[in-house]
Amino acid sequence: MWKFGSRTHFVKELWSLDEGEEVSLQGWVYRRSELGGLLFLRLRDSTGAVQVVFKEGNLPKERVDEARKAGIESSIWVKGVVRRDPRAPGGVEVVARDFRLIGPSENYPIRPGAGEEFLLDNRHLHIRSTYMRNVLKVREVVISAVDRWFRENGFVRVEAPTFVGAAVEGGATLFEVPYFGRKAYLTQSSQFYLEALIFAFENVYTIQPSFRAEKSRTRRHLTEFWHAEAEMAWADLDGMMDVVESLITYVTHEVVDKASENLKALNRKFNPVEERFPRISYDEAVDIAQSKGVDISWGDDLGTEAERTISLEFDVPVFVHRYPKEAKAFYHKPDPNRGEVVLCADLLAPEGIGEIVGGGQRIEDLDELLGRIREEGLNPDDYQWYLDLRRYGSVPHSGFGLGVERLVRWITGIGHVRDAIAFPRTPTRLYP
Ligand code: NSS
To answer: Where does a domain end: 103, 138, 173?
Structure first.
């Protein structure tokens, strides 16, 4: 005897069952139609969707009537038998023998053709869509792969605070929060805390949100994004690029291994990348951008347009290293062979995506760091603990930050980083 509310199978398991086998399923109504006296409900669970056919005679009339009332996104329980039918999507359907409407849903607001803003206002519902579920599944595989790569390569996972007292990446994008009569900020990057933690663990990483008050409305900026950051004692710029290269290579292989169905459903043809990635200097990058007509002069940071242009020149990720000192934050170590540039590197993803990783070698000398803090007009008092790291056993060290949503955007081929996160935060979006 069946027990109401129990589930014997997930949808994805149906395809390996024999014709006539009895199953109980739970899920949501994904599509519905009626044809020639037959009711068809497509039931979706977390593993897939299957067509369920209701025919009077196979189950009591009141159960069929109950099923008729099940609107799109109602939650339902069905018992039935597996039937192979070439006319059913995927070649398998379930012939209903019993039914319960568990949570009704009437006039589900999301319909085909809904506009972008409407979908964002209804993100709490839209995450159920095939599109969002596929993108978010790729995201989950990406985050797990990043975590696994670090753990398997000798990094210790750590966490840093969200409330902080001073800027890492420049004051212009700081979110200010009242803090018991003082000002606090939301962290822009966990880098400085990771720099402190290398003295305990040498190689550390974290995966947590960073916040930027970016007013620019672009396809690659969120005000809250997930940041995978790493810091390594004794590593130089080349060592840092080697790590980024292995990490990204691994993640792309994992996604193709574990989420190929999701990429296919997104119509995305994506091939895993192989080490090594080209490494070009900022000077070369500016030459390329200028030769393609981008308005940029030596000394400017590479903007969206320059990055797009450069990344379109390569069909693999490319490192751009040694930017002018003025274009980068104060903590970057100047190149000893060429004082006007710093030992940093950004990784640009192909297809016009642009920067997905930023990092480099840090200044390890106390006086040099103090000098740079003063040069940038910052207050050394705000950075005393950070300066202490140079007072007590300083070491050469390097690290980087990877924007999770930007990486997911590239891998999935979606048009905007906001779809790479379930509940995006942008200057105009705080709901849902
Ligand atoms: O500003 S970064 O280039 N670098 C840092 O924050 C360093 N302190 C990281 C470190 O060395 N530990 O940001 C790093 C990455 C960047 O390449 C993007 O992929 C991502 O963080 N990022 C963003 N993603 C989405 N939205 C916004 N606003 C954003 N800003 C940076």
So the answer is: 103
Q: Which of 194, 216, 406, 414 to mutate to test the pocket of ligand 1 (most atoms within 8 A of CB)?
A: 406
Nearest-CA residue for ligand 1 atom 23 is: 403
DSSP lists the bridge partners of residue 83 as: 93
Q: Are residues 245 and 361 in the same domain?
A: yes
Average pLDDT of the chain, as a whole number: 96
What is the rounded CA–CA span in Å between residue 138 and residue 262?
7
Query: Which tens digits make up the pLDDT trace of 32-54?
Result: 999 998 999 999 999 999 999 99
Predicted pLDDT of residue 5: 67
pLDDT of residue 216: 82
For residue 356, the ligand 1 atom closest to its alpha carbon is 19
Residues 154 and 193 in one domain: yes
In this structure, the residue with its CA closest to atom 17 of ligand 1 is 357
Answer whether residue 296 is part of any domain.
yes
Q: Are residues 32 and 149 in the same domain?
A: no
Residue with token string 């006319």: 87
Write out the residue range of the structural domain in which residue 63 sits.
11-103
Question: Domain check: are 40 and 154 in the same one?
Answer: no
pLDDT > 90? residue 1 = no
| Averaged pLDDT, 82-91 | 92
How many other CB atoms are found less than 10 A from the CB of residue 115? 8
| Domains held by the chain: number | 2
In DSSP notation, 18-62 reads: PTT-EEEEEEEEEEEEEETTEEEEEEEETTEEEEEEE-BTTB-HH
Which of 46, 76, 103 finishes a domain?
103
For the chain, how far is it from start to end, CA to CA, in angstroms? 43
Domain assignment of residue 363, yes or no:
yes
The pLDDT > 70 percentage for the chain reads 99
Query: Which of the listed residues 169, 398, 429 should we mutate to test ligand 1's pocket, taking the one with most ligand atoms within 8 A of CB?
Result: 169
Question: In which band, very low, low, confident or very high, does the pLDDT at 4 lie, cut at 50, 70 and 90?
Answer: low
